[in-house]
Amino acid sequence: MEELCGSGGGWTRLAYLDMSDSTVTCPSEFRLYQSGGVRACGRPVTSSGSCVSVQFPSNDISYSQVCGRVTGYQYYTPDAVDNIHGSNHNNLNGNYVDGVSITHGSPRQHIWTLMAGNYEQNVHINYYNCPCANDSTQQVQSFIGDHYFCESGIATGLYQQQLYTSDPLWDGQSCGSAESPCCNVPGIPWFHRDYGNTTTTDYIELRVCGDEATNNEDVPVSYYEIYVQ
């Protein structure tokens, strides 16, 4: 495998999804979104917070590094890790984020979180914006630390109950002025964890989560690839 995440070769791909291929279907239990030529996979319809999960076995490969990237889209009003709604804000096993949680093993151990905030600009309530955005009051959970990306898909104006397809999330592009620090982070769009001499054969799990009903918020994914070494 070619060099990834600035860490040489020798990578093995465990997970891959590309919904731009019309023959590809969403993982089991994920719900298909289609809008403006974009196909993406999100949570099944729920009236409260939830997560939907897909697991990728390591096939007994022992690894100490994880590298990957994810593309998602904002549906309506996700608010990153705002803790006003729900009771799972500090629970890695729960719907602690409006976005994507990537973990390994059971009990879950955090690898990376990809969040979706309300707006790219400070045009609404700042505590709904990404924690990395200027003037945001959000605080990331201790189990996340610096291991996250956060972007919004809405530049200005009142949000609508729709999938925002013009600005894909977590690509480090098209960040508004408030959100510019979120795009200015090392590695983006690639996330990378290096555990040094600690190895594991754990499966990797990707969850799409939200702490409110799906008619209020969702963050479906259209693309992911995850590698281990």
TrEMBL record:
The source organism is Amphimedon queenslandica (Sponge)
Task: Report the protein name in the record.
Answer: Fibrinogen C-terminal domain-containing protein
Give the superkingdom in one word: Eukaryota
